[in-house]
Amino acid sequence: MFRLAGSRLAVSITATLLEKKRGNAAEPIPTNIAASASMEVAPRRVGTVTSFMHRRGYGFITALQLSSSDSPDTQCLASAELEAAVRENAENFFFPRSSLDGGFYVSQGQTVTFDVLPSPQVNEQVEKEHREATEDIEASGDPPKSLPVARHIRLCDLDTGKERPVTPVMLHGCVQSWDTITGSGCIAELDLAGNLHDDAPCFNFSLEDLDVVNISDLHQGCFVRFCIERGDRNAARRVIIDRSTGKRHAPLQQWRSSQGASRALGFAADSKPAAARYYGTVRELVDGRFGFIVLEETGESIFFHMSNVDQDDQNASIKVGDTVSFILRGVSQGKHAGKRTCLKIRRCSPQPSLASRNHNSGKGTNHLSDDDDDDEFNLLE
């Protein structure tokens, strides 16, 4: 009898619990909770890279219109504000380099997948990061601030639907040596904490691997970003100056700019102040890569590389016979120690004292201009 009563009691309790469970499952989710849940979901989209400013560190993506059957993952819900911004800007998106999740660059035309930031506050943070990374560059204009920001960008294969990380990865380094005459140097890689060690891996680089505004901004001790690509794992590619890392190493920067910094950078001290400019006449150009300038004060022929022509100058293009001003530096290290080269070259109006010299600059009347010509030509052979 007691067993029968116990069985009935157990059945009664179980039935009551099941009814409560069904009732809770049938209760609707409050509207505010559902709305907040949809706000947290970032839509995964597919698009094409329309442009990427490698040196400036940002670019733009145009979203591809795919049907739900082609890409079900791109149909996630987003906030009303975000969708309105997307429609208003015709499916265009802005992204900084940090959105590549460790990748260094993307190329125009590549297909990518990405998330869209649902929060305007995060957009402001990304814009702040972009300003800090590019404040040293004279940009032609700021990217549109109304565009939604793409993050977590990955390369995508539309045929297979598979994603993969953006490669090559971005590396940070410090210039250990730089020869202004040959246009070659060496970069030591920083560790994950941004510190430099004596046994750090080193990579060679040349002028063809640089993307800088003024080549004179590159010197021994400056910090850079770069990558290594397949084929040559010992060469640094697509090198850009990393001023944000340089600011974090302020004591080293102050040491470099102190007394005697010219020796640390590989330049010998000159009789004139560092900012003093000399004048001369372009005597010869070779293959559009380098040439010689006749120094107004002494008439000697000084070697220069076209990469040292100041790109900020509206008259950046120079030709034989042009009067130019420049900074003169002597190389104190390496195999070219003792020779001089011209930096920050700018075209200018002829100086009165140059009139007679310009008339005879091509006649070979000055024996000083021929002393080292053969050696200088061989520097880049």
From TrEMBL:
<dbReference type="Pfam" id="PF00313">
    <property type="entry name" value="CSD"/>
</dbReference>
<dbReference type="GO" id="GO:0010468">
    <property type="term" value="P:regulation of gene expression"/>
</dbReference>
<dbReference type="InterPro" id="IPR050181">
    <property type="entry name" value="Cold_shock_domain"/>
</dbReference>
<dbReference type="GO" id="GO:0003729">
    <property type="term" value="F:mRNA binding"/>
</dbReference>
<feature type="region of interest" description="Disordered">
    <location>
        <begin position="349"/>
        <end position="381"/>
    </location>
</feature>
<dbReference type="GO" id="GO:0003676">
    <property type="term" value="F:nucleic acid binding"/>
</dbReference>
<dbReference type="InterPro" id="IPR012340">
    <property type="entry name" value="NA-bd_OB-fold"/>
</dbReference>
<feature type="domain" description="CSD">
    <location>
        <begin position="280"/>
        <end position="337"/>
    </location>
</feature>
<dbReference type="InterPro" id="IPR002059">
    <property type="entry name" value="CSP_DNA-bd"/>
</dbReference>
<dbReference type="GO" id="GO:0020023">
    <property type="term" value="C:kinetoplast"/>
</dbReference>
<feature type="compositionally biased region" description="Polar residues">
    <location>
        <begin position="350"/>
        <end position="367"/>
    </location>
</feature>
<feature type="compositionally biased region" description="Acidic residues">
    <location>
        <begin position="370"/>
        <end position="381"/>
    </location>
</feature>
<protein>
    <recommendedName>
        <fullName>CSD domain-containing protein</fullName>
    </recommendedName>
</protein>
